[in-house]
Amino acid sequence: MMQEPRPIHSELKSKRIVWETEHPIRWSFMKILREYSTLKEFYPEINPYVEAYRFRDNLYCLYSDSLDGAGDPWMYVINGPERCMLIDTGFGVGDLRGLVRRLVGEKPIIVANTHAHYDHAYGNAQFERCYCHKNETHRMKEKNNPHIWDYLFDEKGNPKWTMFDKEDLIQWHPYEIVGVEDGHLFDLGNGYMVEAVLMPGHTPGQCAYYDHQNHTIFIGDTTGIGKTFPGEPYEDFCSVEAMHDALVKLKPRFEEIQGVFPGHGMLDQTNLVLQYLLDATEAVLKNPENYDEKKLRTFGKGEKREVCMKYIYQGTGLRYNLDNVWRKRQ
Predict the structure, then answer these.
(1) Residues sharing a CB contact under 8 Å with residue 231, sequence separation 6 or more, in sequence order
(2) What count of other Cβ atoms lies within 10 Å of the Cβ of residue 256?
């Protein structure tokens, strides 16, 4: 029998209408973190939609409720010596720029997106320039318009999944999108480097960001292989094979990574999760039909797709379709 999701106490201004299915392990982590952790900083007078958690001396993890019924997204702020880096910008509700200023002061803000999805990049319009991997720029440009939030509301203008004040959506304006190569280094001052690491599969240009000083990596959404569209560039990169190849390239550095921070779920994970993810991709490539579960799932904007699930040891599962296992070779 399916149990009703158990609410976690929240002082955020957002209030859920539709609840995501409860993830048993994730729920307990979030319960302890959000209700009892001393890492938490909350400034509702600046942004009532975001909680900040200080996981390193110079690292803030920013939590917000999902506005579309899917997973609650994380954003990250690395406070460098001369510049700070904001990784992902969420849905675009509330004053994210003001919150970052409260946390790190008046340093220049470098904004970098893991990928172009609504829960990771719709807050970009609060900034003048945003970076992403060059494979993702076409999707970023599609989202650079004032109608990106329309899907959150019904025909009467009311939120469909999560209650929030429509007046708190940021004012949209066009912003510069800068695509970078795999291995691009962002200098936060005094040689403090954060490296762009192409980690495709979920989207063609999903990009992780590796903090060379803290040895932490911010990986975005790596457990679901995404959908491509007819005529879309870089469609070969939405495949299990593309993700596998990126993990193989990163593998020599697994041991030096001391914290893995995903776009959703539990934070500061061991570097073993990268090896487990690589193992899952290898198992799928060896036999795509040997999945552990196949079911209908609902994604971001309510789209339903049948997906295969290969469970990852000590974690969630790798979601994929049988038609996006391999690169589409001519």
Answers:
(1) none
(2) 11
Q: In residues, how long is the chain?
A: 330
Tokens of 12: 């955020």
Residue with token string 């954060």: 194
The H-or-E segment that residue 277 falls in is helix 272-286
* Mean pLDDT score, 157-161: 97
Of 292, 226, 213, 222, the closest CA to residue 250 belongs to: 222
Are residues 244 and 281 in contact, defined by beta-carbon separation less than 8 angstroms?
yes
Query: Given strand 193-198, what is the order of strands in its sheet?
Result: 185-187, 193-198, 207-211, 216-220, 259-262
What is the CA angle 226-20-242, rounded to 5? 15
Question: In whole angstroms, what separates CA 265 from the centre of its chain?
Answer: 10
Percent of the chain with pLDDT over 90: 86
Average pLDDT of the chain to the nearest whole number:
94
Confidence at residue 296, expressed as pLDDT on a 0 to 100 scale: 72
